Amino acid sequence: MNLFFTEALHVLLAVSIPGVSLVRRLVPATDFLRNHLLTLRHTLYRACYRRVVQRLWQLVVRVSAAVDRVSSSKLHWHVLTKVKSVVIRSVHQLFLNAAGF
Q1: Taking the CB of residue 25, how many other CB atoms lie within 10 A of it?
Q2: pLDDT band at 101 (very low <50, low <70, confident <90, very high)
Q3: CA–CA distance, 68 with 78 (Å, rounded to integer)
Q4: Are 47 and 56 in contact (CB under 8 A)?
Q5: Span 28-49, mean pLDDT?
Q6: From CA 60, how far away is CA 83, in angstroms rounded?
Q7: Is the separation of the CB atoms in 34 and 94 below 8 Å?
Q8: Could you say which DSSP state residue 19 is in?
Q9: Contact 91, 50 (CB under 8 A)
Q10: pTM for this structure?
């Protein structure tokens, strides 16, 4: 899952698609993440699935902090911040769903 998601992000962010917003470009990657996690949700025991989503959330927070430390240019920082925002919202929603909220 990580390998695909990482590669997908690189491709989706590197390709110039006029008229398509950054958020819209990330839809294939966030859809993949959501679909993969939904499959895990139906396959794993509830407690195991919660643990997977919690670990994913911890990873997102850790990567988010790392991105803030290494972003060099203002444009680069803006793009990465937008990507972080989209991914965090997606994972947060999955976390809420897993917790039964």
Answers
A1: 18
A2: very low
A3: 10
A4: no
A5: 85
A6: 11
A7: yes
A8: T
A9: no
A10: 0.64
